Write the structure tokens for this entry.
Amino acid sequence: MHFFIFFFRFDYQKKTYLLINEYQSWKMTKDQSGKPA
């Protein structure tokens, strides 16, 4: 049971990290393509 919780938390952290990474790259491309004059 303890191992399962640990694995779940690890998987959750990995997904969150991927989401943040994706968002940051999307923001960077958005800022580069459409900068307000």
In short: The longest helix spans residues 2-33. Residues 3 and 9 are 10 Å apart (CA to CA).
